[in-house]
Amino acid sequence: MDNAHSLFDRGKSCLVVIDVQQYFIDKLPLDQRQPIVERISWLMQVAGILEIPIIATAEDIAKVGPLLPELEALLPSDSNVHDKMSFGLSAQPDILTAVKETGRSEFVLVGLETDVCVAQSAIGLIEQGYRVAVIEDGTASPPPHHDLGLRRMAMAGSTISSVKGMYYEWVRDLATDARVRSRWQRDLPRGMTL
Fold this sequence. Notes:
By secondary structure, the protein is an alpha/beta fold. The protein contains 9 helices and 6 strands; from the N terminus they run βααβααβαβαβαβαα. A 6-stranded parallel β-sheet has the order 3-2-1-4-5-6, with helices on both faces. The longest helix is centred in the N-terminal third of the chain and has 20 residues, at 30-49.
């Protein structure tokens, strides 16, 4: 396994978008709902520009509903949203197969809810031998559960980062930064600076 303290490498990374469904968004405080979607959407766009694979899940789609349409629209055309029927994605064979098929060793997690599906997914991926980063401002749960989930994942060996921090880990140099910025199709998320 890679050094746990080294930077995340875009050539080894896969972005995992977990259960960003209206049902879970509606459980968040009003002022957190749109910002979390904007940050996840923006990071998905960056991943697309940098050719970082994206795996997306939605919990029990028939009962809970689909991934938010604005996020599903950002997925590569050859990918699908996995109908997740377990809290941790690595407990579901088809999703674990998709993880392995990426050929990536580093998984960057965003989505809902921090203390349940994100935490169980992070811990399951670590148990499978993968390196995991959890994006603090790209994950959410109703308070106080977000902070509890982050602490649980950090204790299990996840790197806790931010949307901005992961952007710069993936980009690494001014030339790549300029190339990515030239292809943005939307403004930075509210309140975020680079």
